[in-house]
Amino acid sequence: MLGRTLLSVGAFVGALVRPVSSQSPTTTSFRSIFTVPASADASVPLIPNINDPQAVNAQEVCPGYKASNVKQTTSGLTADLSLAGTACNVYGTDVDALSLTVEYQSDDRLHVEITPTYVDSSNSSWFVLPEALVPKPTIDAHGNSSLQDNDLKFAWSNDPNFSFTVIRQSTGDVLFSTTGSQLVFENQFIEFSSSLPENYNLYGLGEVIHGLRMGNNFTRTFWAADVGDPIDYNIYGDHTFFLDTRYFEKDEKTGNLTYAPNATDPTAKYVSYSHGVYMRNSHGQEVLMRPSNITWRTLGGSIDLYFYAGPTQKEVTKAYQTSTTGLPAMQQYFTFGYHQCRWGYTNWTELQEVVDSFASFGIPLENIWTDIDYMNQYRDFENDQGRFGYAEGAKFLSQLHANGQHYIPIVDSAIYVPNPENASDAYPIFDRGNATDSFMLNPDGSLYIGEVWPGYTVFPDWIGSVLNGTGAFEWWSDEVERWYTNVHFDGIWIDMSEVSSFCVGSCGSDNLTMNPVHPGFQLPGEPGNIIYTYPEGFNITNTTEYASASSASVAQASSASVAAGPAPASTSTTYIRTTPTPNVRSLEYPPYVLNNINGALDVHAVSPNATHHGGTVEYDYHNLFGHQILNATYHALLGVFPGKRPFIIGRSTFAGSGRWAGHWGGDNTSLWAYMFFSIPQALSFSLFGIPMFGVDTCGFNGNTDEELCNRWMQLSAFFPFYRNHNTLSAIPQEPFRWASVAEASKVAMQIRYTLLPYIYTTFYLAHSTGSTVMRALAWEFPNDPTLAAADRQFLLGDSLMVTPVLAQGATSVGGVFPGVADGEVWYDWYNQSAITAAPGQNITIDAPLGHIPVYLRGGSVLPTQEPGMTTKASRSNPWGLIAAIGKGGNAKGQLYMDDGESLVPNATRLVQFSLTHGALHAAGKGAYVDTNPLANVTILGVQSSISRVTLNNASISTGWTYNDTSKVLDIKGLSNVTFAGAWSRDWVLRWS
Questions:
Q1: Residue 583 φ/ψ, nearest 5 degrees
Q2: pLDDT digits (tens, 9 = 90+) for 761-820
Q3: Is 495 annotated as catalytic?
Q4: Does residue 159 carry a catalytic annotation?
């Protein structure tokens, strides 16, 4: 048994049922109300094209295009594209005339766009993504837009039909080429392909639970889906951007490069070149990665491609963010503290007990969250006054804020529609929104009414608000501000924003008199849906509890089977194939069928035929709902907190969402696999420009256990967003529930809180330059091809490497120490001594439960601060520095400071650190004043004995020690000589 014994199953079931059934009748999941039939969320069973052996291959039957009227422009070229034969109309209606635009937009960015030339009665309606919703990169006003100064070259051919190629001029490498394939452009289907080299390395193309490297036999679907983190399928967000990294062996004599797809020779010299590709399109899409090519298929829109030359990941990512998505939002300092949440906190009193328990166990707690439990019947912007009353909440929040802690509630994406036959079912939030044309419509102009947690609901029309000036943005801001007068929250958590609906079509239009209704599925903890699942290995570590849970699970399944009655004679499903509808767009069931995790596009989502004010349809905008609700919430919070950085965590995201919000990984499961996948998921979001990323630590769905939670609490301490969250009725998983988890959490949190200045500085650099926060080893060491798929280790910033245990029962972990062949030095965080490792060697590292291996990179200077129980307390404590001497005997680092909350700080200060030849220099610029003293400086890798230490030439005779074994110089007692503030003046610390 691991540590403390868990509840027996009998006690466990009782603990599950009692809190739920004791909720007030207005919120309990056992309400005596109409339950929507499960069939309401069923649609036409379709065969995804990639799984259909009878699907027509557009490449074999479509004619392609011919280019004509090619004209050079000051920034590139334009051309007309015409169908090269008889229209194929395979998955829609062919467009007979297209326009090609090529722009060299900067010295490292190329734009290739293909759009319909015109609209006429025979070609239905064409859609081009409005720039008001998703801005387009433009030609740099102060940059270079000529071919000579761009490392990317565009070439085209009409042999046999139109194709184009993008070449890296400096190496001659073909980056993208449609040669040998046909361009297909229809009103509901676009297809183009590019060849790729052997064993290519693509990263990005999110959101998906998958390894960091995409692989060369994988299909990515892009359709925002409300679904609990299935592996390899489409989930919440859409980021049609990828990084392509290619390794070459370099001949030291000639400098010639040879493509090295299977490079493993540790003695060879390799270099890498990376480039990026972004497809600006909001439609449902699929990207097919195959051994020799990549194929792009979309359900509409245009081809709007951007190529980023790099040639490193760092340059690609910065270019993508600075020119295309916008730089990520700077976060308030408090957001880097620890966050605790669960679905199932039943009232303010329970929240206070959780807050008090963290304090009594000595575990830092910065932020307490509530899931939908606080709502009045699951309705946005209204609290349940029986359990989360405003008066009691004001007392709780006042004390919480006095402690330097914060509160973040969930807000869902759908709005309840009151029962017209029940006068007591008033919901003025809906009334105000309806009066301002804030909700989506049916094609006939009536309200589109789906179903989410509160029952039948409407959905804010962000698209109509942006494009046609209707009231959704203003109404949303008004409701957020009204609610804040009753509940003094500190940020908002946006959920269900794909957007989700629990039924197909406008199912509530004729059923509002049934409102509120229960979803057509059981909630966790309801009879027949008790949670008995545990992580892998629970049968080994908790045999008795596992046996009891398994028995209860079997009994529950048997009862459900009996209740359901005998199985039908045949359970086979007859799938159908969609067909094109000439000159008409089939919105609900388009001719090309995506491999969508939920099946048809209208399942568990607002139907594609839902209409926005102004006449546009959800088919074209589905993937932007989550993006625009973050936009609306960001500006709403600016109204609540003028001048302060809004804090938002959202579920559904799109290219550019990072400039408004962070993201969490969604409804993962308490399994070891999901702890592992959290790393590549986080690294992918680094590429997408959403660095404020974390996952539901210890897992959301299912029950966690002590070992998994122990390991996961330590791993997540090194993610920018650090939150624990689990589902209704699962066992509690706050870290104080197990003694070993509490201790492991404190160990990892001490490191995190000590490094808050480093984390905050790293995030500031991401916000100001487009650099990444969490980093793959391959990005920091781009010339080592053995790291191409490494995603079990990662770096936080450029100086801290984390090597977590990701396997159940393991007490050690394998890890590599990249760069040692070139003189890179790594230091153990705990004993501060240098690591001995051979190039490419995978070293077995001792890692008993409660220990997470962490390493400092030589050449780094990290600012630290004495950790407190909150970020506010930490910011009042003395400073420190850890300088890890690297190759050449040097090190450098920096510290960014401001007030920690202002959108535009009145004053800032940036301190640069440099270490060379036995001296550490600190030099600051900026007007921000910090009066905390410098308490200590620790220098790692000092190779010679020390007899003298000075600060600005003044001798420091006591308070320092040198360890000849670990090679660590530890200097304490500096507070007295830096009492005016560690960074109030420049200084030099010397030793000899």
A1: 65, 5
A2: 999 999 999 999 999 999 999 999 999 999 999 999 999 999 999 999 999 999 999 999
A3: yes
A4: no
Q: How far apart are CA 104 and CA 111, in angstroms?
A: 6
Which CA distances in Å does 494 have to 57, 400, 597, 699? 40, 22, 22, 19
Is it the case that residue 201 has pLDDT exceeding 80? yes
Instruction: Give the architecture (CATH level 2) of 64-325.
Output: Sandwich (2.60)
pLDDT of amino acid 840: 87
Yes or no: say if 651 and 498 are a contact pair by the CB < 8 Å rule. yes
- Active-site annotation holder among 229, 498, 784, 791: 498
For 700-742, give the DSSP string. SBS---HHHHHHHHHHHTTSSSEEE---TTSPP--GGGSHHHH
Mean pLDDT, rounded, of the chain: 93
Q: Where are the alpha helices (DSSP H) in 306-407?
A: 313-320, 348-360, 390-402
Query: In the block, which residue shows the tokens 């099946």?
Result: 599
> How far is the C-alpha of 212 from the C-alpha of 403, rounded, in Å?
40
Structure tokens at 657: 């969402």
Q: Which of 667, 707, 780, 898 is catalytic?
A: 667
- Both tokens of residue 370? 């509530």
What confidence score (pLDDT) does residue 148 get?
Answer: 66
Token pair 């290739």 in the structure block, residue: 112
Q: DSSP 3-state assignment of 427?
A: coil
In degrees, to the nearest 5, what angle opens at C-alpha 605 toward C-alphas 601 and 608?
50
Catalytic residue among 495, 696, 707, 798: 495
Residue type, 674: Y
CATH superfamily to which 769-991 belongs: Golgi alpha-mannosidase II (2.60.40.1180)
The two domains 64-325 and 769-991 share their CATH topology (first three levels equal):
yes
Q: How confident is the model at residue 393 (pLDDT cuts 50, 70, 90)?
A: very high
Does pTM surpass 0.90? yes
Per-residue pLDDT at 722: 99
Q: Where are the domains of the chain?
A: 64-325, 769-991
